[in-house]
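name: query_chain
kind: protein
chains: 1
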Amino acid sequence: MVEAAVRGLVDFSQLRFFDPGWTRRLKLILSGLSQLNLREELKFNHDYYLTLLTIPELDEQTTKALREQLENTRTAIDLAYRPWHQALEKSLEHRKQTMRDMTAIWESKFGKMDDPEVQRKIRATVEGLRLQRAAAVNAPLVRPEGSKRRRRPQQDAARRSRDGRRHGR
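structure:
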């Protein structure tokens, strides 16, 4: 709050403590200020890790750890500027995990997808489905002998109203 007052974002001489609008505005200003401070801190950390990586005497393990910290900080900066990316990132990871799980289930039932025998079976199934679809599309529409064409209830109601048999006539 002190920083908000120093920056001139909040004028505490106009304080209306019991006014919900004023307190909502104060919370919004403080939340925005907190986000700005977080972004500045993350940028500082990013520059710090980047500078440390320029030291030539670092061993491989330390360099790897610094690169990981740098990547984590970059991701945090991205999320600070675009908070909606976090939901997208979680959604993407969930989809990837679901696909891995579904692939594992499929492979447990049918075999590894890159196995030549499994590939042959897949191609045979696809060809069978194509032939079945082609036969269904090209088949003539023939009703069994003696069967009547069935009408839908809407057609029956329309026919009755035209014939005058509706409403007790």
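note: The two ends are 83 Å apart (CA to CA).
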